[in-house]
């Protein structure tokens, strides 16, 4: 890759990270990585361009087949949770791409975070392709392809500084454009300070917010207003500027924390209809298939190999993504309220989340989808 190409690629990475709240689709279809042959691995992901390009970079120097399935140009986790990357899209890609004519095996590797929307057992029933869920982080993919084994670290989602700063940028960029444009129109001299406030608050939220304790919203609000007032006062701002120094941080604090939990892998969406429910395991129904152990991004489960039972050892970590419920072939897992109400597994598989966190979207090709759509 030439220096010019690297600069263009880096600029595109920046733009797609900064504005990843919006779809960035790339062309679906079958792609060659290196010089794959009939025994080369087959990987499948959604058509979010940033993910596809990062995946290609992670596979540099290797030979593989890459299937890009239509997911609305949205990243894998959001697309799977919202019904945009489902069993239907995976089966259709496997059947129409011609990949069956290129390889001698029938095994496809999906991102682990696709487990919330893609039912591995149904993919096999409908296409005879076996699904394996690869590691959470692309950086672990080369090692996984070498060993074909997932370590515990490969299964669990983390939130390192690199990812925190990317999420901060994702929220800061469009917000800074809007706030900066308003400031440029109303008070041009305060445009750069307003953009700096957006950047500082975005970085603070995604690097510190989860460490502030139970009163974190109040701490963020009072601290940001105090600092904005101090900066405005020192710059000899008038009454209007001091008023803005109170209103702007309050607005930004509300905006950036509105769905902070849903923008991180730490807690699950704050507007999620079932956010106060908990995961429950029916030990009598469990037969130790351990799909829950394989796909849980928070490592909530442990294995009892001798007793052939899964153990829900860390339910306090659960973010209610539903991956374990979707993948369990024995229907031994479900969401349960404190009052004992249950959401059955079939409902989790059939209905995906809309933008308000409610199960209103019928996943294409999901069990019972036609019945649900006709109700």
Question: How would you characterize this protein structure?
Answer:
There is one protein chain. The protein folds into three domains: 153 residues, Rossmann fold, CATH 3.40.50.11600; 103 residues, no CATH class; 96 residues, Alpha-Beta Plaits (2-Layer Sandwich). The strands form four sheets. A five-stranded mixed sheet has the order 1-3-2-4-5, with helices on both faces. By secondary structure, it is α/β, with parallel strands linked by helices. The C terminus is likely disordered. Helix content is 44%, strand content 13%. α8 packs antiparallel against α9, α9 runs parallel beside α11 and α10 runs antiparallel to α11. The protein is built from 15 helices and twelve strands. The chain is globular.
Break the fold down into its secondary structure elements and pairings.
Blueprint: H1 3-18, E1 29-33, E2 42-46, H2 49-58, E3 64-69, H3 76-81, H4 87-96, E4 107-110, H5 120-127, E5 130-133, H6 141-147, H7 152-155, H8 161-186, H9 191-208, H10 216-234, H11 239-258, E6 278-281, H12 291-295, E7 301-304, E8 309-312, H13 323-327, E9 333-336, E10 342-343, H14 345-350, E11 351-353, E12 359-362, H15 369-373
Helix pairs in contact: 4-5, 8-9, 9-11, 10-11
């Amino acid at each position: 890759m030439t220096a010019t190409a690297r600069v263009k690629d880096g600029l595109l990475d920046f733009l797609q990270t900064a504005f990843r709240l919006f779809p960035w689709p790339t062309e679906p279809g079958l792609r060659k990585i290196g010089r794959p042959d009939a025994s080369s691995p087959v990987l499948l992901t959604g058509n979010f361009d940033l993910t596809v390009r990062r995946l290609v970079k992670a596979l540099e120097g290797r030979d593989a087949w890459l299937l890009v399935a239509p997911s609305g140009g949205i990243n894998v986790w959001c697309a799977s949770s919202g019904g945009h990357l489902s069993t239907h899209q995976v089966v259709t890609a496997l059947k129409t791409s011609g990949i069956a004519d290129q390889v001698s095996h029938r095994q496809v590797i999906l991102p682990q975070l696709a487990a919330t929307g893609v039912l591995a057992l149904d993919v096999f029933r409908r296409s005879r392709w076996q699904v394996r869920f690869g590691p959470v982080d692309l950086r672990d993919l080369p090692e996984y392809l070498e060993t074909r084994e997932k370590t515990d670290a490969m299964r669990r989602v983390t939130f390192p500084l690199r990812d925190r700063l990317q999420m901060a940028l994702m929220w800061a960029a469009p917000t800074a454009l809007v706030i900066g444009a308003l400031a440029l129109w109303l008070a041009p001299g305060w445009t750069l300070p307003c953009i700096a406030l957006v950047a500082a608050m975005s970085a603070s939220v995604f690097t510190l917010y989860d460490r502030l304790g139970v009163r974190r919203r109040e701490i963020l609000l009072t601290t940001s207003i105090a600092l904005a007032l101090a900066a405005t006062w020192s710059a000899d701002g008038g009454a209007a500027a001091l008023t803005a120094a109170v209103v702007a941080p309050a607005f930004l604090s509300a905006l950036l924390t509105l769905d902070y939990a849903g923008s991180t892998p730490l807690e699950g969406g704050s507007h999620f209809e079932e956010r106060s429910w908990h995961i429950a395991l029916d030990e009598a129904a469990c037969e130790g298939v351990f799909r829950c152990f394989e796909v849980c991004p928070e490592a909530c489960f442990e294995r009892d190999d001798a007793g052939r039972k899964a153990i829900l050892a860390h339910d306090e970590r659960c973010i209610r993504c539903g991956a374990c419920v979707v993948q369990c072939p024995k229907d031994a897992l479900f969401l349960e309220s404190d009052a004992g109400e249950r959401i059955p597994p079939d409902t989790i598989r059939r209905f995906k989340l809309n933008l308000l966190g409610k199960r209103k979207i019928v996943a294409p090709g999901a069990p019972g989808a036609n019945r649900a759509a006709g109700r």
